[in-house]
Amino acid sequence: MKKKGFTLIELLAVIVILGLLSIIAIPKVTSIIKSSKKSSYDISINNLIRALNSIAVDKKATLTPFDGCRIDFDNGSNTCTDLEYSGEFPDSGSISVDSDGIVNGSIKYGNYEFNILDNKIL
Fold first, then answer.
1. Domains of the chain: which residue ranges?
2. Could you report the per-residue pLDDT of 76-97, keeping only the tens digit for each?
3. CB-side neighbour CA atoms (13 Å) of 49
4. Which residue, 84, 36, 20, is CA-closest to 58?
C-alpha cells in the first residue's frame, strides 16, 4: 500500500525556502515602494514650482503688478489666486514665490520633508 503526500521533512524544507525568499524580497520591495513615493513627491513638487513660477512670468508678461504670493498648507491660506495646479498638494508646510518667480519654502508629504530654495529641491 502506497501513501500519497509529502513527508514532514519535505514540507519543512519548502517552508524554510519560502521564509528565506521572503526575508530577501520584503526589504527590496519596501525599498522600491519608498523610492517610488519619493520620486512621485519630487515630480509633484517640481510641478508646483513650475505652476508658481508661471504666475510671476504671466504677471510680468501682462505688465500686471505682482509682489509674490504664498501658500500655507498648515492652515489652508493661499494668496496665489491664479495658481493652476492639478497635482497632489503637500500635507503641511508653506511655499512662496516672489515677484521674480523664485520659489522657496519647506513642505511635507507624509514622512518626507522637502526644502525648496531658488526653485530647486534640496
1. 38-121
2. 899 988 888 888 889 999 999 9
3. 21
4. 84
Do 78 and 39 form a contact (C-beta atoms < 8 A)? no
Residue 4, pLDDT score: 80
Q: CA-to-CA distance for 91 and 108, rounded, in angstroms?
A: 6
How many whole angstroms separate alpha carbon 122 and alpha carbon 45? 11
Backbone dihedral angles phi then psi of residue 89, each to the nearest 5 degrees: -80, 150
Would you list the DSSP string of 43-100? Answer: HHHHHHHHHHHHHHHHHHHTT-----EEEETTTTEE--TT----SPPPSEEEEEE-TT
| Beta carbons of 55 and 68 less than 8 angstroms apart | no
**Cβ contacts of 48 within 8 Å, gap of 6 or more:** 85, 87, 89, 95
Name the more confident of 5 and 14: 14
48 CB-side CA count, 13 A: 27
